[in-house]
Design goal:
Elements: E1 5-10, H1 15-25, E2 36-41, H2 47-59, E3 65-71, H3 74-77, E4 83-86, H4 98-119, E5 125-128, H5 133-142, E6 152-154, H6 157-171, E7 178-179, E8 182-184, E9 192-194, E10 199-200, E11 203-204, H7 205-209, H8 212-224, H9 226-234, H10 240-255, E12 263-268, E13 280-288, E14 291-294, H11 302-323
Parallel strand pairs: 1-2, 1-4, 2-3, 4-5, 5-6
Antiparallel strand pairs: 7-10, 8-9, 10-11, 12-13, 13-14
Helix pairs in contact: 1-10, 4-5, 4-11, 5-11, 6-8
Bound molecules: 1,4-dihydronicotinamide adenine dinucleotide (NAI).
């Protein structure tokens, strides 16, 4: 069997980390033939909880799990890493301004980017989950000049999956019959879930989008505000669905997206669709030979353009705040 893939999970003792690592150990992220070596990176105060998680991983007796290390030193945690799941972030606490949040996270992700640049494996692939995910990914990439920017991605797959599920409910079809949905822009309330190009069984997403009242007053806000709705219902933020989306993202990146379909991920813009280069924005993407490619050439109508532009403007403002700290 191949050498174990080194998977570094930051914030591993947190809710999403906890919901991710067992599925990674079970082979759901990298496939049933790929052994894994897990590195759980945590802040010193959460090391005991991470040790407990490592004990439970032991107790899973996972055939593919070759080792688990619990670490509070990023340099050790990312040494030789093939995958970085950057889940840990500074949460917004009471009285904290958005600018303070951006600054606090920008220093975490700048230093993790530097460490990744120095010690990770040459093929390192990074998915940033910790919020503000897009901007954190841009900051990490900017501090890792030797790693191609395209290897720093941010999670919008949860938003994508939410959009697919909502559209499936509306059309009364199975989620498997939905494809070509796109999340554009930022993983925030300004994100734009685009169904104009979607396939919905034998019908097109545009047919559903023609019902503007449903699109504007129901579908788009339901997807964009789903995180808040879950928080209110559960009394805790979405963790299992976020972990599931993170695993979907990495699995598709490594093993490929189905031919003729696409998914959504936030990638460093190449300038496609007029989105400024270097902004980490969500796009329609395909994974080909282990690399994400932006699906180009889609026709963007006025309705979509205005929404994409609004989310991109927010990304620019976040970037300015994060880089000028
Ligand atoms: P959590 O608070 O349960 O866990 C976060 C963990 O990260 C904590 O254990 C903390 O000790 C650790 N941590 C903080 N800074 C760290 C650092 N510098 N290095 C290593 N570990 C560090 O939070 P949860 O629910 O697991 O969420 C994690 C992040 O994911 C949050 O920023 C949240 O906003 C974000 N999120 C993103 C989503 C997306 O779709 N992109 C969806 C849901 C959540």
């Amino acid at each position: 069997s191949p050498a174990p893939a080194v998977v570094t999970v930051t914030g591993a003792a947190g809710s999403i980390g906890y919901a991710s690592v067992f599925r990674i150990a079970a082979g759901e992220m990298l496939g049933p033939d790929q052994p894994v070596a897990l590195r759980l990176l945590e802040l010193p105060q959460a090391i005991p909880a991470a040790v407990g998680t490592a004990m439970e991983l032991d107790d899973g007796a996972f055939g593919l799990l070759k080792s688990v290390e619990v670490l509070d030193d990023p340099r050790k945690a990312f040494d030789g890493a093939n995958f970085g799941l950057l889940i840990g972030a500074r949460p917004r606490t009471k009285g904290m301004e958005r600018a303070d949040l951006l600054a606090a996270n920008s220093s975490i992700f700048a230093s993790q980017g530097e460490v990744i640049n120095e010690v990770a494996a040459d093929d390192i692939r990074v998915i940033v989950v910790g919020n503000p995910a897009n901007t954190n990914a841009a900051v990490a990439a900017a501090h890792a000049p030797d790693v191609p920017a395209e290897r720093f991605t941010a999670l919008t797959r949860l938003d994508h999956n939410r959009a697919v599920a909502q559209l499936a409910h509306r059309a009364n079809v199975d989620v498997g019959e939905i494809s070509r949905v796109t999340i554009w822009g930022n993983h925030s309330a300004t994100q734009y879930p685009d169904i104009f190009h979607a396939r919905v069984g034998r019908r097109s997403g545009a047919e559903y989008a023609a019902d503007r009242e449903w699109l504007v007053d129901d579908f788009i806000p339901t997807v964009a505000k789903r995180g808040t709705a879950i928080l209110e219902a559960r009394g805790a933020s979405s963790a299992a669905s976020a972990a599931n989306a993170t695993i979907d993202h990495v699995r598709d990146w490594v093993l490929g997206t189905p031919t003729d379909e696409w998914t959504s991920a936030a990638l460093s813009s190449t300038g496609a669709y007029g989105i400024p280069e270097g902004l980490v924005s969500s796009f329609p993407v395909r994974s080909v030979d282990g690399r994400w490619e932006i699906v180009e050439g889609l026709e963007i109508n006025e309705f979509s353009r205005a929404r994409i532009d609004a989310s991109v403007a927010e990304l620019q403002a976040e970037r300015d705040a994060a880089f000028n700290r």
